[in-house]
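B., you asked whether I could sanity-check this one before it goes into the benchmark set. Here's the sequence:
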Amino acid sequence: MTRYRLDQETAERLLSGAVDGATGPVRPLVTLLTAVRAAAAPAELRGEPAAVSAFRAAMAVPAPGTPADGSVHEDAPAPTRSAGPGR
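And here's what the prediction gave me:
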């Protein structure tokens, strides 16, 4: 993977939406930013209530190694979560 460092001016232009004709190493970023700026389609929002409910249910359960009351002790290591397979 090749690294590409954005200068401040380029980053500001990309974030403001001024990306007409962008080429080279920034093109994938331009494609991503264009996609996330688009309004959600109705089909993309159909599962939102279920996703929000699942998220809230998951957040209601303490992470492994966390006290049931949710307290954090300064001398206790912070709970960690696995990044999953292949990460």
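One thing to flag: The two ends are 16 Å apart (CA to CA). Otherwise nothing jumped out at me.
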